[in-house]
Amino acid sequence: MAIIIWLILGGIIGWLASILMRTDGQQGIILNIVVGIVGAFIGGIIFNHDMNNMDFTLPALIEAFIGAVILLAIVNLVRRGSVR
Question: What predicted TM-score, i.e. pTM, was given to this entire model?
Answer without folding.
Answer: 0.83
